[in-house]
Design goal:
By secondary structure, the chain is an alpha+beta fold. The chain has 2 domains: 155 residues, Four Helix Bundle (Hemerythrin (Met), subunit A); 96 residues, SCP2 sterol-binding domain (Nonspecific Lipid-transfer Protein, Chain A, 2-Layer Sandwich), CATH 3.30.1050. 51% of the residues lie in helices and 14% in strands. The strands form 2 sheets. It has a 5-stranded mixed sheet with strand order 5-4-3-6-7. A two-stranded antiparallel sheet has the order 1-2. A hairpin with a 4-residue loop joins β3 and β4. α1 packs antiparallel against α5, α3 runs antiparallel to α7 and α7 packs across α8. The model has no long low-confidence stretch (mean pLDDT 94).
Amino acid sequence: MPTIVDKDVVVPLLRREFEAIAELCEGLSEGDWETPTCLPGWTVKDQLSHLIGTESMLEGEAAPEVDVSHLPHVKNDIGRFNELWVESLRPLTGAQVLERFRDVTARRLAALEAMGQEELDEPSFTPVGRDESYGRFMRIRHYDCFLHEHDMRDALGVGDRPDREQLELVLDEVAAGLGYVVGKKAAMPAGARVRIEVTGEAPRHLDFEVAERAALVDRLDAEPTVLLRLPALLFLRLTGGRTDPEPHIGEEIELGGDHDLAGRLARNLAYTI
């Protein structure tokens, strides 16, 4: 069943996210723009170019035809497709890329504002499959932009931006993909009761009961047999594959219940492409 996402929630938060990214990038020097980030082969400018590419695609623009065969960090078809936009914008200055970002996001927001709730509820192609709503796709876009913003913030040595409402929407999206992590990737055993306790500005419990597969539940029937407790932004970096969990285990990541299983879960949270 398609996920229904409230237009009056996702569109304003997407607007706020676009504004935060533009504000972060305003006034960067060319040296800042060329700062490497946690994503292989990508600078701060490349991260912004990637966001431009996705929003341009949603505006119906065709991907540029450029050669990316010389780039060693491109490992798969999705990476090759993403790199078309990034490579095509590399000759531009950072300021020019920021101008392109502002232009395409203004057009995207105008298009979204013109849509009604029923249009966001319609089935759409999304990165998680075709049996989802356009509103879910926009929630994924918000998540992706928030994560890339923090990639850039990390690279530039700027602190996190713990916006509670944005974190809540991002956590909604991450929660939708965690059944695979808990049941398949981390292979929690049948009968396990798993709680991921996210702390900080947007605290919540993500509870899973494992039978034939892991199911997200409103609450566990008994105490968790596997527990992770960690800050929200670290959780997002781990599920996004942005950082190594090992230095954080026993520090920011608290393990509870069966410590071996909890450690296995902590080491296998990454699930995004």
